[in-house]
histidine kinase (Herbaspirillum frisingense GSF30), 918 residues
Amino acid sequence: MDQRPDPDDLLERVMRDEERQARGRLKIFFGFSAGVGKTFAMLEAAQALAAQDVDVVAGVVETHGRAETEAQLAGIARLPMRMVAYRNRQLPEFDLDAALERRPGVILVDELAHSNVPGSRHAKRWQDIDELLRAGIDVYTTLNVQHIESLNDVVGQITGIRVFETVPDHVFDEADDVKLVDIPPDELLARLQQGKVYLPQQAEKAGRNFFRKGNLIALREIALRRTADRVDADMRQYRADRSIAQLWQARERIVVAIGSGVGEERLIREGARLAAKLQAEWLAVHVDLPRQRQAMASRERVVGYLKLAQSLGAETASISGEELAAALLQFARSRNAGKLVIGQQSRGLRHLLQWPRGSLAQRIAAAGGEIDLYTIARSRTREQPEQRSTDSAASAAEALLTRRRRTRGTLWAVASCAATTTLAFLLDGKLHPANVIMLYLVGVMLVAMRHGRAASALVSVLSVISFDFFFVDPRFSITVSDAQYLLTLAVMLAVSLFISSLTARLRRQASVAMQREARAANLYMLGKELSALLTLDQILEIGRRHLAAVFGARIAFFLPDSADQLRLTAPEQDGSGAHVLHSVDAGVAQWVYDNGQAAGKGTATLPSAAALYLPLTATMRTRGVLAFAIDAASEEEGQLAAAQLALPENRQMLEIFCSQIAMAIERLHYAEVAQDALVTMESERLRNSLLSAISHDLRTPLTSLVGSADVLAANARLDDDARAMARTISEQSQKMVGLMNNLLDMARLQAGVVTLNRQWNALEELTGSALRLLAKALEGRQVETRIAADLPLLRVDAVLLERVLANLVENAIKYSPAGSPITIAAHVEQSDGSRQVKVSVSDQGRGFPPAMTQHAFEKFTRGDNESSTPGVGLGLAICRAIIEAHQGRIWIAPQEAGQGATVCFTLPVETQPALPEE
C-alpha cells in the first residue's frame, strides 16, 4: 500500500502552519465550576512568564474580592478599563483598542464567555480575543464547562440552571493550549463555606442550588471528558501532520464497515452492542468503489443503514476508494481506531473469483496487523420477490433510465462494430490482420468512453466474431482453419474486455472527479461572492444561481419577520414568469424554522411534500428556510435526482451551501444592527443636546416670569381679578419650570454627567422633604406612610432620591381621583442572598393599562396620549435613571384592573456606618 503523504494534505498543513504563525497563541484555563482556581492558575502562569522578562499585561482579571488572587497581580501591569454608558450607568469593559495599541507579549483576559455591554465593538468577549489573536498577541483566558455551546443544555439539565453566555465549540477546539484546573468537589465545597468563592450571603444560596455535590461530580466528569476529547483530537492531528500510520490506541474506537447488500442491519446492531460493551466510540463507514456502479436500490439501502447507525449513536461517513481493504484500513488509521468490524462474506461465485487475492478479511488481516478484526455473520434474510416489487419510485425510475441507456449503448455497439468492419473490409488487402485488430480495439475504446462497460463488452464480443467471420480463413464462416488464430482471437477478446473495463472505470472516475471539482469551485465562488455582498437580495440571488448550477434545482427562500413568521422572499421564476416552486408549502417551511430540522421530500418528516426544506442555520440562530426542488426533464429523472440528493455526500454538500448562505445573512443582519445602534446613539445624543439647550435657555425667562407674577399677585393696588390672573400665571409658569427641570435632568442623566453625592440618609426624612415639595398639590388628600421602624440608613444622593419620591407621588396625584389616599410603604427584604430596601407608592386610580407596564419607564411615555393631564412623560423615565444609578431596580407591581397602581423600587443596603461615641 502506498505510504507516501498526500500532496494536498501537505499543502494544507503548510498553509495552516503559516496562518498559525501569523496569529497569537490562545491558552485557556478550563474548569468545571467557579472557584476551582482558574484565575489563580492563570495569574501563576503569568507571573512565571513575567519572571522570564515577557511583557505581560492584565487586560481583564476578575478577582471577585479574593485576597490571594489579588496578591498574584503584584508586579503585572494593568490595562485601564473603558467606561461604557448603558441605561444611565457607566459600566467598565475591556479596552480592546488600548490592548491593540499596547501590543504586549501576553495579555490576560478573564472570562472568555463574557457578554460585552451593548454598544461595544463586539457582542462577545471571545470575539475581542479573536481580534487580539489576529493581531499576533498571545492571550491567556479562563472558561467554565457550562459555557461551551454544545454542553450548555446538558449542564442545564443537570444543575437546573441555564446560562446564556456561551462560547462556540470551535473557539475551544482551536485554542493552542488548554489547561484543566481541577480540584475535588469536597475541596470546592469547603472553599465555598470559607467564603473563598462567593461572599457569605451569596455562598449560602449557591450551596443550596448550583453547588450541590452531585452537580459538581457530574460537571467534573463532563469537563474531564471534554478535555480528553480535545487531547485525543490533538493526538490524531499530530499523527496526521507527521504521517504516522501506526495506531496509538489511547482510547477505544471501533469502525463498522457497511455494505450495500441486504441484511446489514445485524452488523450495525452488533457493532453498537460491541461499542456499548467496551464503552467505546464507534463509526459506521461505507466505501464507494468507483469500479462498481451501484443500483439506486443499493444506494438507498446504504442511506438507510447510515441513518440506522446514526440513530444508534455512531458517527457516519461515506468515503471513496479504489480497493475496499485499503480504504477501510486507511480510514481506521486516520481515526485512530483499533477495532474493525466487517460482515462475513457469502460463499458463492464471487467468493471463488476472489480466491487468488484472498477474501476481504484475509486482505485486512495481512495489511493491518495492528488492528483487531471482528467478522460478524450477516442476517440470512434475503430479499423476497414481493419486496422487489415494492421498490421505491426512484429505483423504478433508475431501472427505466438504465434500460434506455443500455438500449442506446447496444445500438451504438452494433453500429460501431459494423462501421469498423466496413472500413476494414474496404481496406482489405492493404492492412495486415494485426492492424485490423487495432481498428476493432479503437472502436471498443470509443464505445467504452461513451456508453460504459456493458456496451463495450458487447462490442468486444461482436468485434471478435466479426474479425473471425470476415478476415480469418475460411472467410464468411466462424470456423478457424489455423489453430494459431484461436490464440489470436482469445487474446483479442481478453484485451478488448480489459480495455473496455479500464476505459469505463476511468470514465466513471473522471466523471466523479469533475463533479467534485465543479462543486468545490462553486462552493469557493459562493463564499467569495457572498463575502462582498451588501444587500439581502444580492445574497439570495447568488445563492439561487450557485445552487441551480451545482444541483440543477430551483430554489425559494423563506425569511422570518419581526414575529418569527416566515414569508416567501423573491422566489426564482422560469422563462414564462410563473413561480418555479408553485407547490411550496409555507406550513412545512414554518415547521422547519421552528424546529431547526430538515423536512419534505427525501426526509422522514413530511416526505410527501413536493420540495425539500432545509433550515438556514447560522452561528447564533436559524436565519430562514431554503425550499429546494429538483429541475428535471422527466418525472423519472426527477425521482432519480431526488434519490441521489439523499446520499450522504450530496446532502453534506447541500448543507454546506445552506450554511454559507445563512452566515452571509447573519453577517448582513449584524452589520445592520450595528448601523442602527450607531444611528440610535447619535440620534439620542443629538436629542439630549437639544433638550438640554432648550431647557437651559427657557429656565431664565420662566424664572423671571414667575417672579414678576408673584410680585403682581402680592400688589394690593390691583383688583382681585388681576391678582388672580397673576397667581394663575405664576402657577402655570412654575409647572413650566418643573417641565424644563425634567428635560434638563433627563438630558444630564442620559449624557452620564451626573455624579452621585452619596451620603447616609434616613428614608423617613427624604419622604418628608418630598411631601413638603408637593404640599400644595396634596391639598385635600391623605398620604399614609408605612415605613418600618427598623429601616436602616441608605447611602444615596438625597436630592435625586427626593426627586424620585416626588415624581412617583405626583404621578399618583395626576392619575387617581381627587381626595383619594396615597400610600408610601418601605421595608427590608432579602433577595439573591443580599439585603435591600423595598419602597412602594400606591394610589387608588384606574392603574396602568396592561400593555403599558413594559414601556411605562421609557421617555415621553404617558398614560393617556391625548388628555388634559399635564406632563410629557418624563417622570418615570427620570425615576428609572436615578434608581439604576444607585444599583437599584424599579418596576410596576401587578394589580387587578381598576384597583389602582403601585410602583416599587429597591435600593441596596450597605454596611451601616459606626455611630459616633457620645
About this structure: The first helix runs from residue 7 to 22. Confidence is low (pLDDT under 50) at residues 383-394, 572-579. Residues 460 and 629 are 41 Å apart (CA to CA). The first strand starts at residue 26 and ends at 31.
